[in-house]
Design brief:
- It comes from Furculomyces boomerangus.
- InterPro entries: Rossmann-like_a/b/a_fold, Universal_stress_UspA, UspA.
- By secondary structure, the protein is α/β, with parallel strands linked by helices.
- The chain has a 7-stranded mixed sheet, sandwiched between helices.
- The longest helix has 24 residues.
- The N and C termini lie far apart (about 35 Å).
Length: about 170
């Protein structure tokens, strides 16, 4: 499924690579950038635009993954359904994140697509880069300490181990 936001189409988990090639096509490379709602993403996007992306030929794919609500997992065991309003708010929030970058990039002349996915961030990013045959993934790192990394996991570390394309991890402050 897709939704339109100010001339930026935002795709979801069910979208396929065919949507890239028809009707607009793309240039020589597909460059995926993982974005979220942190200053880190501002720095990652800026770095990618300055160092990797060729405005005239590359297709930029913005990816935001909204994490599955873990409380809903537990609630499902007890027979409670997750609040549909909460799901819609999370979707809108994710769409706003990719819009923030995508609309500006589109105005600056970049060829951009955006994905708002649902699931565990690392596996979803890897899955989408494989499906789209991405040439490069640019992702940030939060610089988690050892104990936090054990409990929260590291999306950038997961992607570096499982992506089939080149990956750049941009270390930000």
């Amino acid at each position: 499924m897709e939704s339109q936001h100010q001339d930026l189409t935002i795709l979801d988990n069910r979208s396929t690579a065919e949507e890239f090639f028809l009707p607009h096509g793309h240039g020589k490379r597909v460059i995926a950038i993982s974005v979220n709602d942190t200053q880190n993403s501002d720095d990652v996007v800026k770095w990618a635009l300055e160092n990797i992306i060729d405005k005239d030929s590359d297709l930029v794919v913005l990816i935001n993954v909204r994490v599955i609500n873990r409380t809903a997992d537990f609630a499902a065991i007890g027979g409670y359904a997750e609040d549909p309003l909460s799901i819609e708010r999370e979707k809108e929030y994710s769409h706003n994140i990719v819009k923030k970058y995508g609309v500006k990039m589109r105005q600056d002349g970049y060829n951009v697509k955006a994905y708002s996915l649902v699931g565990d961030a690392g596996p979803e990013i890897v899955k989408k880069t494989i499906e789209l045959n991405a040439d490069h993934l640019v992702i940030g790192t939060r610089g988690l300490s050892g104990l936090k990394k054990v409990f929260l996991g590291s999306v950038s570390e997961y992607c570096s181990k499982h992506c089939k394309c080149a990956i750049t991890i941009v270390k930000t402050q």
